[in-house]
Amino acid sequence: MTLHLVRHGRPLMVPGTPAAEWDLDPAAYDDVWALRASGRLPARAAWFSSPEPKAVQTAQLLTDTEVGVLRDLREHERSGEQVDDFPGVVRRAFDRPDAAAVPGWEPLGACRARVVPAVRRVLDVHGGEDVVLVGHGTAWTLAVADLTGQPPDLERWAGLAMPDVITVDG
Asked: Which CATH number fits domain 2-74+84-169: 3.40.50.300, 2.40.100.10, 3.40.470.10, 3.40.50.1240?
C-alpha cells in the first residue's frame, strides 16, 4: 500500500475571499493533466478529496474514478485577508502549532487534530490498497510528520508545486 498525498492545482485567488472557497484556476488545468499523465499516481486506488473547491476540481481532473469528499481533509482554516510573507507566517505557525499565526488563522495543532485522524481512518479502511488523497500542502505536511514520526519537513512544504504529490509507503 502506498499513500499518495496530492496537493491541489493552482487556485484562482480572489482577494478578500477565504482560500477555502477558491476554485481551481482554469489556466492550471494543463498542469493537473500533466500530473495525471506523469505516471506518478496509481492506476487503481481509493480516491478521496478535501471539500475545498480547488481540491475537488483537481481530483476530478486527475481520475475518472469516484472520489469521496471528506470534510476533515480541509486545509488549516485561514481568514480571507492577505498576509505579507505567507511562507514566513506558515513557518511561524509550525513553530507555534498551538497558537494562531495571525488573527483569523486556525492553529496548526487544531488542523493536525482533524486531518491526521481522517487520514488514519481512510488507511484503516483501505489499508490493503493504494490511496490517493487530494488536498493541501500544510495539511499534508502535518500528516506526513505524524505517519513517519519525523518533524514537519518545511523545506518539502516550501518546494511543493501546484499540483504535486508526496508518497508515503505503508
From this structure: 3.40.50.1240
Q: Which of these, 120, 83, 115, 117, lies nearest to 101 by C-alpha position?
A: 83
pLDDT tens digits for range 124-165:
999 889 999 999 999 999 999 999 999 999 999 999 999 999
Phi, psi of 156 (to 5 degrees): -65, -45
CB 63 within 8 A of CB 90: no
pTM above 0.90, yes or no: yes
pLDDT tens column, 68-116 = 999 999 999 988 677 889 999 999 999 999 999 999 899 999 999 999 9
What value does the CA radius of gyration of the chain take, rounded to a whole number of Å? 15
Q: How far apart are CA 9 and CA 134, in angstroms?
A: 10
Domain ranges across the chain = 2-74+84-169
State the Cα–Cα distance between residues 61 and 77, nearest whole angstrom: 24
Residue 170: band (very low, low, confident or very high) from pLDDT cuts 50, 70, 90? confident
- Rounded Cα–Cα distance for residues 118 and 69 (Å): 11
- The strand pairing partners of 166, in sequence order, are 5
